[in-house]
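User: Here's a structure from my thesis project, written as structure tokens. My advisor, Dr. K., wants to see whether a designed sequence matches the one we expressed. Can you design one independently, without my sequence as a hint?
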């Protein structure tokens, strides 16, 4: 069953789509028009704006390229899950890593695809251990190697396939966040605390400048979402925080990032299978917050009978979010939330909404400070101190100078 709700008023507009055929939306086309994933029965599913949800077969889909290629895994003629590309109803079976073989019902998995459709990344099986791989049409599957003989998994890739992310297993069995370059060289990212290297990379921005995932947390956080950016010699990890909760442990995870730096994920709110809640991070917020609370702060209060469990995908422009929800009947379902007005212009310092930060934003903010009753701005409190004043003007000037 598919439900579409369109809300328009003077304050905001949004579209809310939900359907029960898919439980976990695992990948989204950059413009938000295609969502792929799986359900409780482990069936691969594609949803499109025009056709709704379609069940393709046994397996799961994980990513969508701009040209419509879908990566994932499906059961082959031998009953084994094999990495595959689906496009316009046609299947391309990708095979396995060199010298690989099956383990139980698994051969290989396609876990992400680059935006340009050139590269699929995932993992292949060999003697019931796994190795990360990258696939392209010229070379086929190329193994990225194991780490000191231990398991590796690739589950994220940037827009042109030049940076791949995932995890590498330590001798202790701990998963460690890592990235591979185009030549297959691996770099471990570490974690938010020096005493533990636990973590995973979950997504990479198209230009490769932003990497997200989760790791051992900072402070009182046990597991914490992070944003990693290249530094002079390595990567610098920034913790994204954990919303207040009643779980007894502080845990957050980041799953996807837009090209204007909106990050979506989840946190553990209470114990139990339904205890996770969707979370969102923006530069203006500075920390992860509950998605429903964030919507409420925008004036969207129509979801009192819904629980947003996970926020798994976000469009490039940050306006469309998809994830898993517990609907008003208590059933798990996929939701697609389009907040075009509220997230469409999410550039820090762009107070006049022209998608550029320049002297015009300074002038607009000065006029707002001089006469706030005549000029109402969203996002004017750039330093998040609860006031709009000269300090926010300084913030805009620093943004302009940094650019």
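Assistant: Designed independently from the structure alone:
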């Amino acid at each position: 069953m598919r439900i579409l709700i369109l809300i328009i008023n003077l304050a905001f507009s949004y579209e809310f789509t939900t359907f029960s055929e898919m439980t976990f939306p695992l990948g989204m086309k950059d413009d938000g028009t295609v969502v792929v994933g799986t359900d409780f029965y482990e069936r691969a599913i594609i949803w499109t704006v025009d056709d709704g949800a379609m069940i393709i077969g046994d397996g799961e889909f994980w990513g969508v390229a701009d040209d419509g290629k879908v990566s994932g895994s499906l059961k082959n003629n031998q009953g084994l899950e094999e990495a595959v590309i689906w496009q316009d109803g046609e299947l391309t079976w990708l095979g396995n890593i060199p010298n690989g073989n099956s383990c139980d019902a698994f051969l290989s998995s396609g876990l992400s695809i680059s935006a340009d459709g050139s590269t699929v990344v995932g993992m292949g099986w060999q003697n019931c251990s796994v190795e990360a791989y990258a696939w392209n049409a010229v070379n086929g599957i190329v193994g990225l190697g194991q780490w000191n003989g231990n398991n590796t998994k690739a589950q994220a890739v940037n827009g042109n396939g030049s940076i791949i992310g995932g995890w590498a297993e330590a001798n202790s069995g701990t998963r460690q966040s890592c990235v591979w370059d185009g030549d297959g060289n691996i770099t471990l990212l570490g974690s938010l605390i020096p005493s533990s290297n636990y973590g995973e990379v979950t997504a990479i921005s198209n230009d490769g400048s932003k990497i997200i995932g989760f790791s051992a947390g900072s402070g009182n956080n046990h597991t914490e979402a992070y944003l990693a950016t290249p530094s002079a010699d390595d990567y610098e990890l920034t913790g994204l925080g954990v919303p207040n909760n009643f779980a007894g442990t502080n845990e957050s995870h980041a799953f996807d990032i837009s090209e204007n730096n909106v990050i979506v994920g989840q946190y553990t709110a209470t114990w139990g299978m339904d205890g996770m809640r969707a979370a969102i991070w923006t530069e203006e917020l500075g920390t992860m917050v509950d998605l429903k609370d964030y919507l409420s702060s925008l004036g969207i209060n129509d979801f009192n009978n819904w629980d947003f469990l996970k926020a798994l995908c976000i469009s490039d422009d940050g306006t469309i979010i998809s994830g898993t929800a517990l609907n008003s009947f208590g059933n798990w379902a996929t939701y697609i939330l389009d907040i075009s007005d509220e997230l469409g212009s999410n550039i820090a310092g762009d107070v006049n909404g022209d998608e550029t930060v320049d002297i015009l934003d300074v002038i607009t903010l000065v006029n707002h400070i001089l006469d706030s009753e005549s000029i109402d701005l969203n996002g004017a409190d750039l330093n998040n101190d609860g006031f709009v004043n000269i300090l926010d003007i300084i913030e805009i000037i620093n943004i302009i100078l940094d650019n």
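When you compare it with your expressed construct, this may help: The radius of gyration is 21 Å.
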